[in-house]
Design a protein that fits this description.
Elements (H helix, E strand, L loop, with lengths): L3 H10 L7 E5 L2 E6 L13 H9 L4 E4 L5 H8 L4 E5 L2 H9 L5 E3 L10 E6 L13 H10 L1 E12 L23 E8 L2 E2 L3 E4 L3 H10 L3 E7 L4 E7 L1
Parallel strand pairs: 3-4, 3-6, 4-5, 6-7
Antiparallel strand pairs: 1-2, 1-8, 7-12, 8-9, 8-10, 11-12
Helix pairs in contact: 1-4
Length: 233
């Protein structure tokens, strides 16, 4: 990987002429995102993210922490936070911003630790990659939970992005789950290799949790088919 997402984050942190990140998916056209958005303060965050941060308790793991904005808010509230991301540049940024425990780590490789809250935000189900591997990730997350622990995760039902038929149904792929997308990132005239990214509607997440011995509770719904859920033992 070129780690372009992380490079954009580090460029912003170090004032190295940052540019917008261009993202594109297998079902949507190219879209520009300002990297400054990843450095937002609590007051600037969507209500779903604010609610998740309000619900955090105990020892916290922030998965896919990016520029570290969620972790920083929690650290300022005196929580013990471990922040992980697969991007070396993102973790360099987190450390430069003052996070005490930020490290390059794939969630699947994390061992010998337990947490009271595991946080996966900004479409946290994305890292599951596809529906077939969702159980593998849920089992891993479950193994990292303390007794009475919680997983706070958000996603969106992207059914609205597909064409609607006259009978009210949607023209979705017949050969795979409609939330399974391929994502690409461009930054400073470089293009990252495409990678899988999963959006899960709430009912599908609930069914996956049930199959993996987790309870699933809908906490909050956003304005655009997005939601925050709490998973627990």
């Amino acid at each position: 990987m070129l780690d372009l997402f992380g490079k954009a984050i580090l460029d912003f942190q170090t004032n190295n002429t940052p540019e917008d990140i261009i993202t594109e998916t297998s079902i949507s056209e190219a879209d520009e995102m300002s990297v400054a958005y990843l450095f937002r303060k609590y007051e600037e965050m969507p209500k779903l993210e604010q609610k998740a941060l309000q619900l955090c308790k105990g020892k916290i793991l922030d998965v896919g922490c990016g520029a570290g904005s969620h972790s920083l808010h929690l650290q300022e509230k005196d929580f013990e936070v471990t922040s992980i991301d697969i991007s070396e540049n993102a973790i360099k940024t987190c450390q430069a911003r003052g996070l005490k425990n930020a490290k390059v780590e794939n969630i699947l490789h994390l061992e010998n630790e337990k947490f009271d809250t595991i946080l996966l935000l900004m479409n946290g189900t994305g890292i599951f990659e596809n529906l077939a591997t969702t159980s593998k990730y849920l089992q891993k997350l479950k193994s990292l939970l303390n007794e009475n622990g919680q997983i706070l995760i958000d996603s969106s039902d992207i059914l609205y992005m597909f064409d609607q038929n006259e009978d009210g149904t949607f023209s979705v792929p017949a050969d795979n789950y409609y939330g399974e997308l391929t994502f690409s990132i461009q930054y400073k005239n470089q293009t990252e290799e495409d990678f899988p990214w999963l959006y899960l509607d709430y009912n599908t997440l609930q069914n996956a949790c049930q199959a993996n011995g987790l309870q699933c509770e809908l906490i909050l719904e956003g304005n655009h088919f997005d939601y925050l859920a709490k998973l627990f033992l």
